[in-house]
Write a structure and sequence with these properties.
Blueprint lengths: L3 E5 L3 H12 L3 E5 L7 H7 L3 E4 L1 H7 L2 E4 L6 H8 L1 H4 L3 E4 L24 H8 L4 E4 L20 E6 L2 H13 L3 E4 L6 H4 L2 H12 L12
Parallel strand pairs: 1-2, 1-4, 2-3, 4-5, 5-6, 7-8
Antiparallel strand pairs: 6-7
Bound molecules: NADP nicotinamide-adenine-dinucleotide phosphate.
Length: 216
């Protein structure tokens, strides 16, 4: 039976990935502090879509997607509760973008290169299986992007091999090849790819690119 997907996030990433999972045949609940703000989405999305609070969404899900503001991510994991997340794969699409303006198109992070946001989240919910994914590309390109026959690369990281195998399958459905960079610490390298990805956008309004890892 197809997994039930719980998307924590009422923003554009939550909507894009929720619609992607619906397109690929899953049942999807979206979570918010105010589920009422997702009523229009639920009505448009059809019978396999529902809404709830963060903890209701975490309880519903077999696989959770974390798509919330980076500065709120730890609070949302706490609200979703470590108990409801325990044993579940959590796709972590967040980036630790600071509440400070970019410098010449270079975003600022509230984390350091010695500790990623995902490591903090993994510590906050030790029983959950966090996998960094979807963080290094804009939302418009997350689901089956068309690069004229070229398959872009999604960099992933996480401690649990079984969870990463599930994400590998999902990324294949969503039109991505996977580069598994290792355990949660590798998120220290993946999260800053968001900074690089955003520079052409913030400086030249170009947002239609993705990363490709060439292997000889
Ligand atoms: N935008 C992109 O193209 C893109 C691409 C890759 C990765 N990302 C990352 O994906 C994540 C989501 O981005 P987004 O643009 O979709 O949305 P966003 O505006 O960054 O986040 C919206 C979500 O954050 C929650 N939130 C905000 N402040 C909160 C607080 N104080 N306490 C609890 N929850 C709070 C909101 O909860 P409520 O629903 O309760 O309001 C909402 O669900 C971010 O970490 C972003 O860096 C974005």
């Amino acid at each position: 039976m197809a997994e039930k997907i719980g998307v924590l996030g009422s923003g554009v990433v939550g909507e894009t990935l929720a619609n992607g999972f619906l397109k690929h045949g899953r049942e999807v609940m979206r979570g918010s502090r105010e589920p009422g703000k997702l009523t229009a989405w639920k009505q448009a999305a059809g019978g396999r879509a529902s809404t709830g609070t963060f903890v209701e969404t975490a309880r519903f899900a077999d696989i959770v997607v974390l798509a919330v503001k980076g500065t709120a991510a730890e609070a949302v994991v706490s609200a979703a509760t470590p108990a409801a997340l325990a044993g579940k794969t959590v796709i972590d699409a967040t980036n630790p973008i600071a509440e400070a303006p970019p410098v010449k198109g270079v975003l600022r992070f509230f984390t350091s290169l010695d500790e990623s946001l995902m490591e903090r989240l993994q510590r906050a919910a030790p029983g959950a299986h966090f996998v960094k994914a979807f963080s290094c590309v804009g939302s418009a390109l997350m689901v089956n992007p068309d690069f004229g026959g070229v398959t872009p690369t999604m960099f992933i990281a996480g401690n649990d091999a079984g969870a990463k195998a599930k994400i590998r399958g999902i990324l294949d459905e969503f039109g991505w090849e996977v580069a598994d960079m290792g355990d949660a610490e590798a998120a220290r390298a993946i999260e800053p790819l968001c900074i690089l990805w955003c520079i052409p956008g913030l400086t030249r309004n170009e947002w239609r690119h993705a990363f490709k890892l060439l292997v000889k």
